[in-house]
Amino acid sequence: INSLDLTNNQISEICNNTFIWHQNLMKLILTDNRITTIEVGAFNGLVNLAELSLQLNRLNIDVLEASVFVQEHLPSIYLSNVYFRHKAVPKLIFRNITTLTKLHLSNSRLQAIPDGAFYGLENLFELFLDGLMLDALDENVFSGLNSLITLNLKNNQLRVINPSTF
């Protein structure tokens, strides 16, 4: 199997080593489930995974930090319409995913993105932050994103843009 689509099921938990025997899996879509728990090691063995979609789930940032954001070779992560219990992206949360090229956090009820949130993402070229509740951006929030081509910030509540933000 190269692509596995489990959209619109009732999955609430992804257990350790769930996909251990699927080394060829390149695309994993877990959109529109009831996922609240992803155990550490849930994605063990997915050495060729290029795209992970967890859209429309109720995930805690801490769960993602311990399970998803430790994947060293994961080019695309889709977290749009995820209900985050935290209102801000923690600093350095993406630091281990140096191969990340696409990150979608649209409509995720986030209210703040601090400096350093995207540290280490030198290869990121597509960042979607639309439909959040951002009213301000720290001056250096996007620093280090030298490969960034597309930045979507529409439908936020931004009031002031500092000259050094971009």
From TrEMBL:
- Matching InterPro entries: Dev_Immune_Receptor, Leu-rich_rpt, Leu-rich_rpt_typical-subtyp, LRR_dom_sf
Keyword Signal applies: yes
Q: Which SMART domains match?
A: LRR_TYP
The protein, known as: LRRNT domain-containing protein
Among its keywords, does the record have Signal?
yes
Q: Which UniProt keywords apply?
A: Leucine-rich repeat, Repeat, Signal
